[in-house]
Each structure stands twice: as structure tokens, then as C-alpha cells.
Specification:
Radius of gyration: 28 Å
Number of strands: 14
Number of helices: 21
Distance between the termini: 46 Å
Structural class: alpha/beta
């Protein structure tokens, strides 16, 4: 889940070392860039880490202290807590453009050539040394630690092609640089560091302390200018591996992350990420999520976003769920997308003009999300039952918070006439409204669940009324019979 790319400005005009000096450019290390730019944002009140939700008073102060101190760091937290997302936002603290020696594999600064090739070129060309400009988005490197990762992948190895071209073994220019030196003068992230074999972790010791790399038997000492960040899951320390003690000691800071601490943070996260993943647009006054897959769009009203957020939090707190594994933020995002997709499917099959997600679309998320949750052994075979129960609880809590104090007698009076109302994931909104008929106070019900001006379509009305019906059932004021693909509400 990435931020929308910000428009790039034009790079500076300097194209040679002479131009660069005449422009007044000063050289700063990566950590100095980040420190000074972070301080500028702190003083101005600008957002320091755009798109990060729920960490303002907990994680971010620790992160800011670590960056101001110039520390490499480890982010420690359960899956789906936004560790990778947070790491990637750190690149926004880099200068937008930085000069490099044109053609350098490891991004040497024109004032301080480090590799053999650039040192030779600088001696030959002098003030005519060619300069290129690198955008901060291109100064980020990332490696998912896997058991098959090699030292060559991270640090480098001999390039047999260069040797075949006639260079001698031992020539430093026969080295093929790995991911870490290729991210020189940038930010490099190792995701899930404990999964990296211990003998491979050793190769990072020099990077963190001596700030250089060693490649096989070469007399090669390349000073690296890099901010190294790792992420890890606490469970990994015992289940899949560990971070070796000398490496842990070289990181300047260990920062714990967490899931959204409040319901409001959970709601903000779902709205931000589900809309982003589906290329949605903010719905303005309603605050709902607009999902926009090719050809169709579906709206996810506020009351259903809240239901999904409450559902996610109840699953995290459930004693039936293995708390050590955690429940990822991707759980709620996938739930929102799946519910919206159900409305899209209904529209495609029934011809609804404007699909709006309804309560009947929520049960379909349970089997979809089952694989995202690790249950306690004692709950084996009851996974779907547990999730369905928690979804009903979440729906009831949302109903109490939105419509619980409202007079719904006009809707209940419909059932005193002996009617039964059938709904389901393939029941069009117009058909559901036809079964219910006119309801006094419908506008107040819609307003209470977050539907404002512009939400007068049959889909919105059906979504509000069906939520009210489900709430009345959960409050035991109506009965409900489960039927194939839906439900029948009655007295």
C-alpha cells in the first residue's frame, strides 16, 4: 500500500562538477539530510509521515528521536501493523534531488567519489566530471529476507561476465554490487530480518558499524552512506529465527509498533487504504469509501465501515484467536473490499444502476477472511462460527451507536400488518424497498447512519433500512429466518 506519488519538480541544471560547485551545493550525509528535513517539518507543523494512522502519540515520537540521533533501527511488531508502510515514508524526509556521478552503480557523490571507477573518472575529468540527479523516490531499496538470500544478493559478488571480458580476477571493477551498496546514499530496508540466515546476517555487521562492505577476498573498502532499517515480527524470534546478538547491538534503536489503538483510527485506516487499493475517491460529506474497479463502482456507507472496524477489533480481542499471531490491518481492508465487491456483483447480475453495499453483503466476508486469522487449537472446526458470531456483535454495537436511541416504531408497524421482508445478496434495492413500502422517518434513519445530501438513491435507502431491520433482529424485536442466499425478517 503506497502513497500516491507526488509530482516531481524539475531536477537542478548542474551537469558537471564545476556547475555543481558554482551552484553553491553542499554535501550532506543521508542521516544529516533526514535530520535537518525532519527538524524543518517539526518546526513548521507539516505532516512528518504522511499516510500513517494511529501512531502519532506512540510510535512516531520514538521514530523521530531515532532519526534525529542518526540511528539505524528495527521496527518490531505483529503482521499488518504498517511497518513497511512507515519505513517507506521515511524517504519523504530526503532532499527531493541529490547529485550523483553519472553512471555510478553505487550513487557516489561528485564531491566524494568512492568506487574505483569514479575515482579514476574524477582524476581524468576533473571539473568536467559528469553529474546526474537522483530523485528521492529512487533512493530507497528493500529486500524481503528469505532463507535463500545470499551475501551476493545483499553485498555483492564477483561478476563472471566482467572477467570473461578480459578483466583480471582481483580487479575491483569485476565486482557486481549487491542491493545494499546499490542503495548507497539512500534508505535500505530488510523486511522480516529474523528470516535471514544467521551467516548472512553477519554480512551486515560492517555495514552498521564500520559503514563499509567486504566482497570475498577483494581489498575493497567502500564507505557507505546509508540509513539501514529492519522490520521483524516478535513471534519470529522463536518460530522462524532470530536476529543475532552482534547485529541487534549495532542497531541504534528498537521501536515497537501496534494496531490502531482506537475505533476512530481503525475507521480512518479502512477509509484510507480500501479507497487507495481500489483507486476510490472520498465521498465528501458521507465519508464513505468509493470502490472503483473497472466498469463498476460500489459505495461502502459509514455504518458498514464502522461495523467492519468493530468486527476487526473484536476478532483481535477474542480469546478464540491466537494473540501472538495478531490480526493484520489487511483483515479490515480486505473485508471492506470484499463487501463492496458483493455489491458490485449484485449490480452486475440484477442491473442495479448504482450499487451500494448493504448488511446482506457482510456474511460473505467471513469465509473469505477465515484464512487471515490464526485460531487457538481448541477452536479447530469452529472458525466460521466464531467469526460469524463476532460479526453479529459488531453489527449490534454499531446499531446501538447509530440507531439505538431512535424511534423505529414506523418500521416495526409494517410487521404488525403481517408482512415478511426477504433480503439477500442478490435482492435489488428496488425490490427490497417495494417489500417494505413507505416508511415515516426514513430521512432521519439515513441521516443517523451517515447518509447526507446526495444520497437519495434506492441503494442508499435500502442500505439504511436493511441495517435497521438487522439491528431490530439483533435487539430481539424482530425474528429472522436464514434462507438460501439471504434472510426473511418477520415478527
Amino acid at each position: 500500500m503506497h502513497e500516491s506519488p507526488t509530482p516531481r519538480s524539475e531536477p537542478p541544471q548542474a551537469r558537471t562538477l564545476r556547475d555543481l560547485r558554482e551552484s553553491g551545493h553542499t554535501y550532506r550525509t543521508v542521516k544529516a539530510e533526514i535530520r535537518e528535513n525532519l527538524l524543518a517539518r517539526l518546526r513548521s507543523g507539516e505532516p512528518r509521515f504522511p499516510g500513517i494512522v494511529g501512531f502519532d502519540d506512540t510510535v512516531l515520537p520514538h521514530l523521530e528521536r531515532a532519526l534525529l540521533a542518526g540511528h539505524d533501527l528495527v521496527l518490531l511488531g505483529e503482521r499488518g501493523q504498517g511497518k513497511t508502510r512507515l519505513i517507506r515514508t521515511i524517504t519523504t524526509l530526503l532532499d527531493e534531488w541529490t547529485p550523483v556521478i553519472d553512471g555510478c552503480e553505487i550513487n557516489d557523490h561528485p564531491y566524494a567519489p568512492a568506487c574505483v571507477r569514479c575515482a579514476r573518472l574524477a582524476a581524468e575529468r576533473g571539473d568536467e566530471l559528469p553529474v546526474a540527479w537522483k530523485h528521492r523516490d529512487d533512493r530507497y531499496g528493500e529486500k524481503l529476507a528469505t532463507p535463500d538470500t545470499s551475501v551476493g544478493d545483499l553485498i555483492g559478488d564477483v561478476d563472471p561476465i566482467k572477467i570473461a571480458e578480459g578483466r583480471t580476477l582481483g580487479d575491483p571493477e569485476t565486482v557486481h554490487y549487491g542491493l545494499v551498496p546499490r542503495t548507497n546514499r539512500g534508505v535500505f530496508s530488510v523486511n522480516e530480518l529474523p528470516d535471514l540466515a544467521e551467516r548472512i546476517q553477519v554480512s551486515l555487521l560492517n555495514v552498521l558499524e564500520e559503514r563499509d562492505i567486504q566482497v570475498r577476498g577483494y581489498n575493497l573498502r567502500l564507505p557507505l552512506d546509508i540509513l539501514l532499517i529492519a522490520s521483524a515480527n516478535p513471534e519470529d524470534y522463536t518460530n522462524r529465527g532470530r536476529i543475532i546478538t552482534p547485529l541487534k547491538d549495532r542497531f541504534g534503536a528498537e521501536i515497537r509498533t501496534h494496531y490502531p489503538p482506537t475505533l476512530e483510527d481503525e475507521l480512518a485506516l479502512i477509509r484510507q487504504e480500501a479507497a487507495l487499493n481500489w483507486r476510490g475517491q472520498d465521498l465528501g460529506e458521507t465519508g464513505g469509501v468509493a470502490a472503483d474497479p473497472p466498469g463498476l463502482s460500489a459505495e461502502l456507507p459509514d455504518h458498514l465501515v464502522e461495523t467492519i472496524a468493530r468486527f476487526t477489533r473484536l476478532v483481535r480481542e477474542s480469546t478464540a484467536v491466537d494473540s501472538r499471531s495478531g490480526v493484520s490491518a489487511r483483515f479490515s481492508i480486505a473485508a471492506a473490499e470484499t463487501a463492496a465487491a458483493s455489491a458490485v456483483r449484485r449490480a452486475a447480475l440484477t442491473g442495479e444502476e448504482r450499487p451500494v453495499t448493504r448488511v446482506c453483503d457482510l456474511p460473505g466476508i467471513v469465509p473469505t477472511l477465515r484464512g487471515k486469522v490464526e485460531f487457538e487449537v481448541s477452536e479447530e472446526g469452529r472458525e466460521v462460527e466464531v467469526l460469524a458470531h463476532l460479526l453479529r456483535r459488531a453489527t449490534a454495537e454499531t446499531f446501538r451507536g447509530t440507531l439505538g436511541g431512535m424511534d423505529l416504531s414506523a418500521l416495526l408497524d409494517k410487521f404488525s400488518e403481517g408482512i415478511q421482508i426477504q433480503s439477500g445478496e442478490l435482492t435489488p434495492a428496488t425490490e427490497l424497498l417495494h417489500q417494505i413500502g413507505p416508511v415515516n422517518g426514513l430521512a432521519k434513519i439515513m441521516s443517523a447512519v451517515g447518509m447526507g445530501e446526495g444520497d437519495e438513491s434506492p441503494g442508499h435507502a435500502a442500505a439504511a433500512l436493511e441495517f435497521a431491520l438487522e439491528g431490530l433482529y439483533l435487539m430481539r424485536r424482530l425474528s429472522k429466518d436464514e434462507v438460501d442466499g439471504g434472510a426473511v425478517y418477520r415478527t
